[in-house]
């Protein structure tokens, strides 16, 4: 009521179930827990509007609306129209991202009447906008899928995540960070092993060897005795002669 806008249905159902969401998880390095993942959805009291007030108390202090330029690129083709910091858009902070930027709920058309259509955008530290999803439900799934890893929102920017964040991605979410590699070098991930060739039986021609008939152990002795008997008989005959 304060901002004359209606929450999208999926986000309203989320807040009816729970007033915000926060989940953190840690990893152990040298037996010391180190905070790593962080998944946050601000409560309704922290669902603050951006660009609506000055950062300082001085009346002439600059605001985010002063960053607006009439020469900003509008949405064309596949690129959606970017949000505006002035009265043309209503922007609410969903996730402070631990100081790495802000995930925002954006009403892009606020004049003359606020349009109920909303989108989820990421505002980086350089105050550049990056489109994430069209619905809160889709963003919530992205948040869970990326495990709340540091700077995971930068995976949807043109310059990507930092080298340090990429190391965490390679450790806990390797498929997500190597999506482009999977699409470009799909053949390198295909198992080209052909089990029919590996387990193919080789037909070897058996070599036939002539086997001599086995001789009983007593035959050799009898043959020797017969030979000696013949020799002795021949000797006896010669002596008789």
Describe the structure.
It comes from Melospiza melodia. Residues 222-241 have a biased composition (Polar residues). Residues 200-212 have a biased composition (Basic residues). Residues 65-84, 200-241 are annotated as: Disordered. It is built from seven helices and six strands; from the N terminus they run H-E-E-E-E-E-E-H-H-H-H-H-H. The chain is of the alpha+beta class and 241 residues long. It has a domain at 9-54 and 80-185. A four-stranded antiparallel sheet has the order 3-4-5-6. It has a two-stranded antiparallel sheet with strand order 1-2. A hairpin with a 2-residue loop joins strand 1 (21-29) and strand 2 (32-41). The radius of gyration is 42 Å and the shape is elongated. The termini are far apart.
Please name the defining characteristics of this protein.
241 residues, alpha+beta, four-stranded antiparallel sheet, two-stranded antiparallel ribbon, 7 helices, 18% strand
Question: Can you give me a brief rundown of this structure?
Answer:
The chain has 241 residues and is an alpha+beta fold. The chain has 7 helices and 6 strands.
